[in-house]
Design a protein that fits this description.
This is Ion transport 2 domain protein. By secondary structure, the protein is mostly helical. It is built from ten helices and two strands. It has two domains: 145 residues, no CATH class; 129 residues, no CATH class.
């Protein structure tokens, strides 16, 4: 029975580690526990605030909840591994009575001390296999901390690139480029640079899917509201007689198709064409 309980704890730890792996190092469109948490908070914020005031905190709050879930899951899982073997498999300080400090809460205390690398030493593993398992938990705790920092450092540059692209598109809209201006070498350069920026954002959505759940507001930094004009430029560029502009518009259209594919496969699931996907993206981010 003790072995079965410990096995349950090990399974909990493995589930959490698998989620960390697929969230940070091998993101897939199938999601995991972290994606469930982020999606649920995004949907709740959308329903709770029609004007999207709550949506602005959905992303940061979701990341905090995911990190808390990972930490608690690892701590609880290892506590379940330890608990069936208390008190005989542990050494207690002279100030503690082993039989009175062998409850589940004491196992959780041991786990939290180890995962946090605090090393208080009032309760320590005595059996050989536990003396190996306990340092492994410390390594997992340290890895989880560094992975979380890396996650945060990766998400926010991705958000900056997305908002920069939105601002660039808004600048082009305000500039009011005419068909004649697009049908030139300068127009080709503008469309080509725009296509490269769209491609970078597509990669960001694929590599950091949690960034989707960060709301950009309703101003010039909202890609969901601005991306439609980029599609309009791509269509206008197709009529250009300048070879460079014509090719650049085709590249921009392909980049927008790739962006729509990523958005639809991972978040929106409309199954529609590019125009439908971008419209759904706009609605989901507060565009009506």
């Amino acid at each position: 029975m003790e072995g079965l309980i410990s096995l349950v704890g090990a399974v909990v730890v493995m589930v959490i580690l698998r989620d960390v792996f697929h969230t940070l190092w091998h993101p897939t469109r199938h999601g995991g526990l972290s994606r469930i948490v982020m999606t649920a908070l995004w949907r709740l914020s959308s329903r709770a605030s029609p004007r999207r005031r709550a949506a602005g905190v959905a992303g940061p709050l979701g990341m905090a909840c995911v990190v808390a879930m990972w930490t608690c899951g690892v701590a609880v899982g290892w506590a379940v591994v330890y608990w069936p073997h208390m008190p005989e498999a542990f050494v207690f300080s002279s100030a503690l009575e082993p039989t009175r400090h062998s409850r589940p809460v004491d196992a959780l205390y041991i786990s939290l001390v180890i995962v946090g690398t605090l090393g208080l030493g009032d309760i320590a593993p005595a059996e050989e296999w536990l003396r190996v398992v306990a340092p492994l938990e410390s390594l997992v705790g340290f890895t989880l901390l560094t992975a979380t920092v890396s996650w945060v450092l990766g998400i926010f540059p991705a958000l900056a690139r997305r908002r920069t692209l939105a601002l660039r598109v808004c600048h082009l809209r305000r500039a009011g480029m005419t068909a004649g201006q697009l049908d030139s070498a300068a127009g080709a350069a503008v469309l080509g640079a725009l296509a490269a920026d769209v491609a970078r954002v597509s990669v960001d959505f694929a590599q950091y899917p949690e960034s989707y759940y960060f709301h950009d507001g309703t101003g010039d930094t909202s890609l969901a509201l601005a991306i439609g004009y980029a599609a309009e430029l791509a269509e206008r560029g197709r009529q250009a007689k300048d070879p460079g502009a014509h090719i650049a518009s085709a590249v921009l259209a392909a980049a927008l198709d790739d962006l729509a594919t990523v958005l639809d496969e991972r978040f929106l699931h409309t199954g529609g064409a590019r125009q439908q996907v971008l419209a759904a993206y706009e609605r989901d981010h507060g565009g009506g």
